[in-house]
Amino acid sequence: MQGHSSNGRKRGEERLARNARSKASLNLATVLASVFAAGVYTREELQDAVCGYVADMKNAGGTGDEVAQSARDLVGEVGSRFPQSERTELLLADMVGWCLIEYYRESA
Prior knowledge:
Helix content is 82%, strand content 0%. By secondary structure, it is an all-alpha fold. The longest helix is centred in the first third of the chain and has 37 residues, at 2-38.
């Protein structure tokens, strides 16, 4: 029975981690789509979405590299629906920087 309880707990933790990533991913994807569609954005709004995404991923057990790669993948996924531009690469570089800063920021 001990193994069953451990497996159940692990599945529950995995489900919580997926839900956290899904909610954060959806929020960030929505903000990114707005950025790509409008061509104009509020840096603070985007940075807040990135930081929320990082916090959720970190709380779910993601490493700094996993979080940064996941953000890259999300930008690529959302960005693929819009015309490619140099701006996409600049945006990606900013976001990865924000991810790493937020991930390694000490909690107050």
